[in-house]
Specification:
This protein is of the alpha+beta class. Helices cover 29% and strands 25% of the residues.
Length: 106
């Protein structure tokens, strides 16, 4: 996630506007917009979902859904980052990871 100072630089130096012009997309300045994308943090143990959400709360983050057991046997929760991107924290008992931490199965 880019740091706020970088985002401020891009915004104020017209770099962001130039990038948006290249894509043909508009810059949305409202934070109360669903961007159509969610990010996911996949953890190794169900308790890590709870611990991650606790950390987000401790720094004043916005929680969208509290940790909860899912019908499929996992545990999930969701929150917003400072740019109002939606993040899911998920434990999937059927997932496996490689030595780098990359998910191998879904």
């Amino acid at each position: 996630m880019p740091c706020i100072k970088q985002l401020e630089y891009y915004y104020h130096s017209n770099q962001l506007k130039n990038l948006a012009n290249d894509t043909g997309l508009e810059i949305i300045t409202s934070k109360n917009v669903f961007k159509g994308v969610t990010f996911s943090i996949n953890v190794d143990e169900p308790v890590q979902v709870d611990l991650t959400i606790k950390q987000v709360k401790n720094i004043g983050g916005t929680i969208f859904s509290e940790p909860d057991d899912a019908f499929w046997g996992g545990r999930t929760a969701s929150f917003a980052d400072p740019e109002n991107n939606v993040w899911e924290v998920a434990f999937n008992p059927d997932s496996t990871f490689d030595e780098r931490g990359a998910m191998l199965t879904i």
